[in-house]
Amino acid sequence: MNLLMRHTLPLLELDILKTFVAIAETGNFTTAAETVHRTPSAVSMQIKKLEELLGCSLFRRDARSVVLTHHGEVLLSYARRLIALSNEAVSRFMMPEMNGVVRLGAPDDVGELILPEVLKRFAESYPSIAVNVSIENSSSLRRAVAERRLDLAIFNATDGTVPVPGEILLKEQLVWAGKSCGNAHLKTPLPVSVWEEGCIWRAKALEELSRSGRDFRVAYFCAHHMGQRAAIRADLAVAPLARFLIGDDMVALGEKDGLPDLGHYHIGLVVNDEAEAPAQAVADYIRTVFARMERRPMDMLQVAC
């Protein structure tokens, strides 16, 4: 019996594994500490305890970043599976009725840059709910909810309008995006990259250009925001983009550059009036995420879930 006890392997603590995963995903102890609601010193102590338990280093640290070691990469796979299995087991008993498929719609920008992280976090809390995502323009999404083809949808709306039905989640600035050190905005007629009909950014941009008397041409047409970014990076055109989409190789242009102000727009949410509990759970989670965004400096690419 004593021999058996001496060879019993220690157990990994889920709270410490969650901290480990948070550091691996953010690459920063301070940001990870905010994610797991602990102090940076407490997070450091947890990792020290985990490394002592396993007898190896899990991170390589320098003044600017934290990177997983080979052992850390191996543990990350196990940690994610253990956390997911724990969530699944707990939800089986605490939320047995919360299961099913939810049909969620979102515009291209939200669907690519915000939703993946949001849904990843949601799945950790509700592993028995499957979320199927459709990417469309905002008018099509709202129509799909009204026709019961979607349970809920995130959409973009022009500033000053209150969507009915629907609710406002966040107000964000709309700007002209150009290549950093580029000259597309200096050309006449102005080369513009836009989406398909029904996109509120397109409508707002073309309306303001016409009102200002600036001569323009549609030089690049694409229904996806990545296509718009490609046109900007090649200095083929300028495009109306949400402020949070401006990358390091881009610059926000405005009236000082001879372009009209585009103001703000709203990100909204509409929920099918017959939506069941799983869809309502998704809606509540989305509301919580966007409420946190509104209280913090705008950095949608690092969603505070």
Automatic annotation (TrEMBL):
It holds the Pfam family LysR_substrate. InterPro entries: LTTR (IPR050176), LysR_HTH_N (IPR000847), LysR_subst-bd (IPR005119), WH-like_DNA-bd_sf (IPR036388), WH_DNA-bd_sf (IPR036390). Keywords: DNA-binding, Transcription, Transcription regulation. Belongs to the LysR transcriptional regulatory family. This is LysR family transcriptional regulator. It comes from Shinella curvata. SUPFAM superfamilies: Periplasmic binding protein-like II (SSF53850), Winged helix' DNA-binding domain (SSF46785). Residues 12-69 form the HTH lysR-type domain. The keyword Transcription regulation applies.
